[in-house]
Amino acid sequence: MAVALFVAAPVLVIWQPRGLSIGWPAAIGGTLAVLLGIVSVGAVVQVVRIVWDATLTFVAVILTSLALDSVDFFEWAALHVARASNSEPGHQSRTAGAVRCERATGGTPPAPACVDHLAGGGRRNGRQCG
């Protein structure tokens, strides 16, 4: 029974049937392991005592990243790094152009021709490209 549970839970986490979030199979597998006596409650408490700080840090990093992403911080930082880089001429414009083109297309990566053209002024065949 234990082997079946420890095989089924990761398979369901990876497979994600019907778009099932990865947390559900893991939580159900853990709960079943405790209910079936495969893992003791004491062992669960011991593991939580060992990893609580790392888990809390991981959650905090995710929440911070979501907050920064919601205000476009990463796009702002990328544009500033691109402008500050000392790379070959035109490289900054290509990078900034790619970000502008992605913003204009709703996050879809731009075609290379669009990025190349943005470096040269932003118009292609008389139409604005991003």
Report on this model:
70% of the residues lie in helices and 3% in strands. With 130 residues, it is mostly helical. A two-stranded antiparallel ribbon has the order 1-2. It has 6 helices and 2 strands; from the N terminus they run ααααααββ. It is elongated, with a radius of gyration of 24 Å. Helix 1 (2-15) runs antiparallel to helix 2, helix 4 runs antiparallel to helix 5 (91-104) and helix 5 (91-104) crosses helix 6 (112-119). The protein has helices spanning 2-15, 23-35, 41-70, 73-84, 91-104, 112-119, and strands at 123-124, 127-128.
Helix content: over 70%
Category by helix and strand content: mainly alpha
- Measured distance between first and last alpha carbons: 57 Å
What would you report as the Rg, rounded to the nearest angstrom? 24 Å
Read across the widest sheet, the strand sequence of neighbours is 1-2
Question: How does the overall form come out from the CA principal axes?
Answer: elongated
Total number of strands:
2
Strand percentage lies at under 5%
Give the overall average pLDDT: 78
